[in-house]
Amino acid sequence: MDLRLPLLFVTFFVFGLVNFSFGQEKLSESALGQQILDYIKNNDKLNHLSGADISDIYLDRTSYSKQSGVTHVYLYQSYKGVKIYNAISNLAIKNNEIFYFKNNFISNIEDKVNVLSPSLKAVEAMQKTATHFKMKMEGTPEEVSSSAFKKVFAAGDLSQEHVPVELMYLKDKEGNLKLAWDLNIYTLDSKHWWSVRVDALSGVILDKDDWVINCSFEGEHTHTNENITSVAREAETFNVFKKSSFLVDNSQYNVLPLPIESPNHGSFQVVTEPADPVASPFGWHDTDGVVGAEHTDTRGNNVWAQDDLDGSNFTNGTSPDGTASLNFNFPTPNLNQEADNYLDAATINLFYHNNVVHDIFYHYGFDELNGNFQENNYGKGGDEGDSVVAQAQDGSGTNNANFATPPDGSAARMQMFLWSRAVIAEDNLTISGGTIAGNYNSVKPSRGNGADGPGNITGPSSTPVTGALVIADDGGVVPEEGCSPLINSANMAGKIAVIRRGSCNFTAKIQNAQDAGAIAVIVANHNNPDSDPNYVPYVNMYGVTDPEFTIPSIFINFDDGETIINAIRRRERITATIVDNGPFFKDSSFDNGIIIHEYGHGITTRLTGGANNSSCLNNNFQMGEGWSDWFALMLTMKPSDVGTDGRGIGTFANGEEIDGRGIRTRRYSTDVAINEYTFNETNDDRVIGQDADTGEDIKLNESVHYNGTIWATILWDLTWAYIDKYGFDPDLYNGTGGNNKVMALIIESLKLQGCNPDFIDGRDGILAADTALSGGVDQCLIWEVFAARGLGVAASRGELNVFNDQVEDFTTPDPSDISLANCTTLSNDNFSAADYNVFPNPASNILTISSGRNLGGVTLELVDINGRIVLSQSATLVRNVEIDISGLQSGLYVLKIIGEYNSTNHKIIKE
C-alpha cells in the first residue's frame, strides 16, 4: 500500500485475536472473515480483485507484536482449495483497526489457471526432482500422511526430513497459473534444502528455491580503488545489557562477548550467567521449563552447538561439557595453530552467540508467536521443536557459512566453516645441505568438500618431520608421478617422497608412497609455465581415504619442484624438514559478525510472509544478505563509533585487519567517498561468471550479496540518522537509544513488508513500522534517508523478473502529505556547512562542489554582483559536481544551491 496516500481505516472488534492461531482456516468461515473481506472490497487500491479472486482465501497464521501492539494476519489465496504459491497478503491490526494491507493476491485467477487436476502423481514429482538434482531415490517412498491436496513421504535415503508434496498453482512470467507440485528436500550433505515446483502435467522443474542460504566469497567488483590504511585500535569492552541475575545456575563462558566482533577486535572474557530472564527464563541449558538444566554441554532450548569435523551434517558431533556446574571457562585458545586444537573454545563461542542473538532480538519482537527458534515455547504460542543446530568447524566445506531455515516447527541449521585465502606457507618446508638449502613456499592440503565427503589428506603438524629426499619411481612412463605401487620402496623407507603432480589422484600418489614406507610426501606441480598458458603454480590437494593417511603431505610449485628434483638427481646430500608454521585456517566461529549474519537469515526468513512460509525472500533483489549484514553491524557497534567510519563484514575470517573491506564490495559507511552505492547500482548487469550447471552468464546484479550490500548501505544510513537524533545506548536488550529504536523498527517492518519484497516494499514496510511503533514521528527522517540513496517518492522497482529496469529518485514527499503530519519538517532551511565543500576558491576554470552525502536534486546558479543569473545547471548533488566557470569574467559571484526543500548561498571569486 502506498504510504504517501491517506490510509483507509475499518473498525471492528477482535476477540481473542492475540493468542489465536488460525491453522489455515478459510477466511469466509472465520470470525474475522467478513470484516477483512469488506475491507478488501471497499478499498480503492484493491478493486481490481474480483469476487472469485477473494472467495477462496485462507487465514494462514497470525502473530502479535508486543512492541507495537499490532496483530499481523497472513492470508493465503487459493483456487478451488488449491493454494497459489506465495500469493500471501498480510494485514496489520492495531486498536481494532486495519491500518496496513500488503497485497500479493493475483487478479482474475479464473482466467489464468491451466488445469484443475494433475496428470503427474505426487511421488512422480519427487522422482523428477531427485533426477534433476542428481540425487538417488531408491524404490517408492513410504507415504506418511495424505490429504486432499497434500502427501507426506518418508525421508528414506533421499532427504534428512520427511518430504511434503503439495498441489499448488504457480504464477509464471507471463502471469498464467500453472498447476504444480510443491515439495522440499533437505539433501543428505546439508548443502541444500531445495524448495521446488514441478509442473503437474509435464514433470518439468518450473521453479526452485534453496532454504540453505550460503554466504561465501563473492567476486571482486569495484568502481574505485579504496586506499585503506591499517589502523591499530584499542579494543573497547563494556556490558551490552543491564539486568540483574534472575537464575543462579553458576553458568560461565570464556568467549568473545559483544560488542567484540572477533579476536582482532578484543580479548576473550569470562561471562557469568548471561541468559536473559525474559527470552530464556529457565536459562540456556533448559528444555523442559522446570528449574534445573537438562544439559550440561553446549545444548539447550535455543541452540545445540557441536562440531561437524567429518562433514556428516548429522547431530552426532561432540559438544564441550561444562559438567553439572555449567563451567565453560575453558582455556583461552591460541589461534596460531591447527583449528581442531581449539575446537571446544570455538563451539562454546558459537553456542554463546546463538543464545545471545536469540535473547536480544526476542526483546524486539522475534519471539515464539513470530516463529523464533526454540525447543520449548513454554506455552507462549507458535510451533516449537525447532532450536538451531549450530555446527562448528564443519568439514563439508571451507570459506563459507550458511543457515537453513525451514518453516516454524522444523529445526534450523547453522554451518560454520574454516576460512582461508591463499594459504601459501613461506617456512613450512626447509631444505638443508647441498646447493639448494633454504625455505620454500608450500601449500597444505585442503579441508574442502568433494563428492565423497570432506577431504582428509593429512597436512604437516607442529611436530617437525625430517628426512632425506627420494624421488618416487612407479616404473611407468612418467615414473616420478607415483601412480602405481613404487618399485623403489627399499630406498624409500624412512625417507620423504618427492612426487610429480600428474595423471592420477593425489590420494593414489600419497597412498603408494606411504605403502612404500615414506614418512612424508612433497608433491610438485608438473606444468611448465613456458609451454602451458593455463599454468597454475599451486593447488590445494584434496582427496578422501579410509582410513586417513598417517604421513603428512605438502604441495610446491613447478620451479621449486624442478630445483629439488634436479638436486637429487645430481646426488647432492640434502634433507628436508616439513612442519606446520602456518598460515592457519581462520575459524568463523570466532567471527561473531558472521555468526550474527547467519542467524539473521533465520530472523528475516521467519518474519517475512509469516513463519509458515520459508520461500518469501525469493526474488531478484534478495535483500536477506543486506539485513544479515545490518544485524552483524548493529550488535558490534561501540559508543566511540561514528557513521563515517568504514565497517567491513567478516574481516577476521577473511584474514584482514579490522578496518579491511571484508567479504563485501564496499565497506559500510555514511560517507559516500567510502560507500557511494545508491538504488541505481541494482541495474549493474555486467557478467561476472557462468553458472556451473547451465553455463549461462551470471550478472553482477543477480548476486544476492551485491544487492544485499546496497540494501544494507541504506539501513546503515538509517541507523545513524536514528542515533544522531536519539543517541546511542550500549544496552542491546532494554536500551532506549537510536540503535535500539531502529532495531525495533526493522523487526516490525519485516512483519509488514509482505512476501517477496523488493527495495520499495522494504522502504514502505519501514515507514509502516514507524507508524505502528510511534505514530509516525520519524516519517520525515526515514524519507530523507531513503531518498538520499535513490529510493525517493518516484523510485521504481521495474519488473520483478527483469534485472536492470530499476529507476532511482532522490525526491522526498510533499510535506503536506498526511503521513508526515507528525513530523516537523523534512529538512532544515539551509544545507549544513558540513554537508558540502566548494573548491578551489578562488577558481579560474573549474569549480567543484563536493558532498559527503547525497543531497538530492538541486539547481546550481551563479549570480553576479548585479543580481543577474550568469550560469545555471541542474545536478544531483552527490560526491563531486563540477561547474565550468572559464567563460565568466573575473570578480565576485554568489553560488546558489537550490534544493526542493532547502537552499544555501556561497561566495565565489573568479580569478
From TrEMBL:
<keyword id="KW-0865">Zymogen</keyword>
<keyword id="KW-0479">Metal-binding</keyword>
<dbReference type="Pfam" id="PF18962">
    <property type="entry name" value="Por_Secre_tail"/>
</dbReference>
<dbReference type="GO" id="GO:0004222">
    <property type="term" value="F:metalloendopeptidase activity"/>
</dbReference>
<feature type="domain" description="Secretion system C-terminal sorting">
    <location>
        <begin position="838"/>
        <end position="909"/>
    </location>
</feature>
<keyword id="KW-0732">Signal</keyword>
<dbReference type="InterPro" id="IPR003137">
    <property type="entry name" value="PA_domain"/>
</dbReference>
<comment type="similarity">
    <text>Belongs to the peptidase M36 family.</text>
</comment>
<dbReference type="InterPro" id="IPR026444">
    <property type="entry name" value="Secre_tail"/>
</dbReference>
<keyword id="KW-0645">Protease</keyword>
<keyword id="KW-0862">Zinc</keyword>
<feature type="domain" description="PA">
    <location>
        <begin position="465"/>
        <end position="564"/>
    </location>
</feature>
<dbReference type="InterPro" id="IPR050371">
    <property type="entry name" value="Fungal_virulence_M36"/>
</dbReference>
<dbReference type="GO" id="GO:0005615">
    <property type="term" value="C:extracellular space"/>
</dbReference>
<dbReference type="GO" id="GO:0006508">
    <property type="term" value="P:proteolysis"/>
</dbReference>
<dbReference type="GO" id="GO:0008270">
    <property type="term" value="F:zinc ion binding"/>
</dbReference>
<feature type="domain" description="FTP">
    <location>
        <begin position="61"/>
        <end position="105"/>
    </location>
</feature>
<dbReference type="Pfam" id="PF07504">
    <property type="entry name" value="FTP"/>
</dbReference>
<dbReference type="InterPro" id="IPR046450">
    <property type="entry name" value="PA_dom_sf"/>
</dbReference>
<dbReference type="Pfam" id="PF02128">
    <property type="entry name" value="Peptidase_M36"/>
</dbReference>
<keyword id="KW-0378">Hydrolase</keyword>
<dbReference type="Pfam" id="PF02225">
    <property type="entry name" value="PA"/>
</dbReference>
<keyword id="KW-0482">Metalloprotease</keyword>
<protein>
    <submittedName>
        <fullName>T9SS type A sorting domain-containing protein</fullName>
    </submittedName>
</protein>
<dbReference type="InterPro" id="IPR011096">
    <property type="entry name" value="FTP_domain"/>
</dbReference>
<dbReference type="InterPro" id="IPR001842">
    <property type="entry name" value="Peptidase_M36"/>
</dbReference>
<dbReference type="InterPro" id="IPR027268">
    <property type="entry name" value="Peptidase_M4/M1_CTD_sf"/>
</dbReference>
<keyword id="KW-0964">Secreted</keyword>
